[in-house]
Amino acid sequence: MALRVEQDIFLVRQRGREVAAAVGLEHQDQVRVATALSEVARDLLRTAGGADVTFTLVANADDGRRHLRIDLAPVGALPADRYEPQSGAVARLMDKLDTVTGEGDTVVRMSRRVPANAPALPPERLAELRAQLGASAPGSALDELTAQNQQLIAALDEVRSQRDELAVLNEELAETNRGVMALYNQLTEELEETNRGVVALYAELDEKSAQLRAASESKSRFLANVSHELRAPVTAIIGLGRLLADSASDPLTVEQVRQVGLIRSSAADLLALVNELLDLAKAESGRIEPDWAEVDLRSVFGQLRGTLRALATRPGVELVVEEPPAPAVLRTDEVLLARVLRNLLHNGLKFTEQGEVRLAAERHDDRWRLTVSDTGPGIAPEQHERIFEEFYQVPGKTRVGGTGLGLPYARRLAMLLGGSVLLVSEPGRGASFTVSLPVDGA
Ligand code: ADP
Question: Do 123 and 99 sit in the same domain of this protein?
Fold first, then answer.
């Protein structure tokens, strides 16, 4: 089509709409194409004195779809070879609106995508359409104005109904928002409530453990003080008893000798108890500082072998202290370690009537396992933890002498050395206490 005078703008616009409808664009799109086309046509008539307009149906564009393409070749030169639409909104009506320069000619090109569901247009149908469009007489400017008015009314209607829909959507959105906010507030409140509960619980827990610590400290202090105070009078009783029984003193009757002997042995028992209590209280109050050094297990075992031989007096019981595998060194406190092992060996010898009491050492990765095992009466599983409690003694024949303080003391000391004491035992199958210690100290 030739665009040369004002009147042509209407014709181009009308044709544009008809072609858009013919290739399958939807109603709204037809109006868009027609409007954009008439705007561009008006611009070009003013700036370039008119244009030649070509409609093309591009079958397979860059995006693989059909496009309606409209080229407007200006009659005169475009200023600076560029075309800028007067109204910025025009470009938005189309998918593309550019100036294209090829073989010296500059063309204003605009295109709009044909919807995928538009009917196919085989060549014969295209030819038919072309013939139809060619034959249809162009209407007057008034006709086009009427059509344009109707389109405007339809567009306004569309805008109004969209605005109504938007209002409904907005209302729904606000409603949902209110719901979400309410839920959020509720959750926040619940969370705060839970938090307050947890905080209170922790405060209570802290308070309870402080009380517990204080109680345990005052118990240790009490034990330490009492046993310390008792030591002097008990030692005095022992000394006086020895004096009384001394042959240099006035002679005693047989009965008096027997009674003094009882006093002396009771006092000796009491002193042993007091000493053990003092040891345990010291260990618990953390007042024992291990004296860390490289210790050779073979020398510790050697000493124990020597000192405990005197205690292994039962004819049917053998004390076996194995030789530790070399190199048998670890970082620990030699005196405390010897005390732990002596305690365990002492128990073994005390309770075993037949068989043996054995001390053995084994290295496992970065720990030493020192095991004292015996062939004594053994200990029922339900007593395994209780015998580590202060003053606890298993009821029955193993309640001979003793104080019930040896094992808790041994475990305390082992912990100070970074280790632990574990028991494996069953009634009738002996007992085996294992002291596990880190090779490089705590
Ligand atoms: P004590 O030996 O002074 O009674 P301990 O704390 O050393 O106190 O031991 C607590 C109790 O554990 C003992 O009274 C005894 O009943 C039991 N027990 C300890 N060692 C053995 C063992 N080797 N075999 C059997 N029972 C044991």
Answer: yes
Please give the residue range of the domain that contains residue 243.
216-285
Tell how far the Cα of 427 is from the centroid of ligand 1, in angstroms: 13
Q: Number of folded domains in the chain?
A: 4
378 CA → ligand 1 middle, Å: 10
Q: What is the CA radius of gyration of the chain?
A: 54
Tokens found for residue 231:
């030591």
**Same domain membership, residue 306 and residue 195:** no
- Cβ of 403 closer than 6 Å to ligand 1, yes or no, is yes
Q: Is 277 in the pocket of ligand 1 (CB under 6 A)?
A: no
Ligand 1 center from residue 289 Cα (angstroms): 26
Residue nearest (by alpha carbon) to ligand 1 atom 25: 378
Contacts of 361 (CB under 8 A, 6+ apart): 297, 301, 322, 324, 325, 328, 368, 369, 370, 371
Q: Which atom of ligand 1 is nearest to the CA of 408?
A: 6
CB 273 near ligand 1, within 6 Å: no
310 with 271, same domain: the answer is: no
pLDDT truncated to tens, each residue of the chain (442 aa)?
Answer: 899 998 889 889 989 999 999 999 998 899 999 999 999 999 999 988 999 999 999 988 788 889 999 999 999 888 777 788 777 788 889 999 988 887 778 899 999 999 988 888 888 888 888 888 877 766 677 777 887 788 888 888 889 999 999 999 999 999 999 999 999 999 999 999 999 999 999 999 999 999 999 998 888 888 888 888 888 899 999 999 998 888 787 888 999 999 999 999 899 988 988 888 888 888 887 778 899 999 999 999 999 999 998 888 889 999 999 999 988 999 999 999 999 999 999 999 999 999 999 999 999 999 999 999 999 999 999 999 999 998 899 988 766 677 888 999 999 999 999 999 999 999 999 999 999 999 998 6
- What CATH number should be reported for the domain holding residue 122? 3.30.565
CB 434 within 8 A of CB 421: yes
Atom 14 of ligand 1 has which residue's CA nearest to it? Answer: 393
- 116 lies in the same domain as 40: yes
Same domain, 88 and 110: yes
CB half-sphere exposure, 11, CA atoms < 13 A: 17
Residues 240 and 363 in one domain: no
3-state secondary structure (DSSP) of residue 73: strand
